[in-house]
Sequence to fold (278 residues):
Amino acid sequence: MTAPDDRDADGAVTDFRERMSYADYLHLERILDAQSPLSASPDELLFIIQHQTSELWMKLAIHEIGAAMSEIRSDNLQPAFKMLTRVARIFEQLNSAWDVLRTMTPSEYTRFRGALGQSSGFQSWQYRAIEFLAGNRNAAMLKPHAHAPETIERLEAILARPSLYDEAIALLARKGFDVGDEAGRDDFRATRPPSDAVMAAWKIVYAEPETHWALYELAEKLVDFEDYFRRWRFNHVTTVERIIGLKRGTGGTAGVSYLRRMLEVELFPELWKVRTQL
Fold:
């Protein structure tokens, strides 16, 4: 039983010598000590925290996408809808983070850019995992992680299994839709080309939503996810151009021109193309 002197006047516990506190539960000491600027620039802390918090949000996105895939595989769609909604909201948060980073001017970034060496967000294995999980499977993107065997193992495990979109297409097949060659595909390592049969299946779903409501809602949850994901990519391009112009990225990419090409990548191509046919 808590002694009276362990609480304040409102009854809140104030003595944590033998109890788990808020900081203990969240391991705040480890998190708040994880920022180690390499320059004297006061703006480097903003750069570090923005990227660290983005990685934390991406960790949650990976968790939620994996859980949603499992639910879709089990034909348990209602929980999957909730998880995919959460993923979209995570990317809404990631989009907001660019607003904070854009308060940094080119001259402020220049003061510590040299300290980054060749490190770059291009090398984020969690970002790569999200792309692989969603369905954009470019195995060449494993190369920046070749020095980290555990990371390669994680990403290879994702490539060996169906993606989120593969699970949605497999669900279409289980519900009796003709998805063509996709029905028997067992090599998930490469990015799949758009399929006329899959687009025809989605067209039926969109033309008759009352008949196929669960599939219709799943399709819209996937589009919501990619919508926010595209916005995140666009905001990335805009932020980079605002801060470094057309310079090459620290990781050696062409910078803005490379990021602009990434805007053309579609995660769920038939779900976007079918809109033209409706």
In short: The radius of gyration is 22 Å. The chain has twelve helices and no strands. Residues 40-277 form a domain with the Methane Monooxygenase Hydroxylase; Chain G, domain 1 fold (CATH 1.20.58.480). The mean pLDDT is 91.
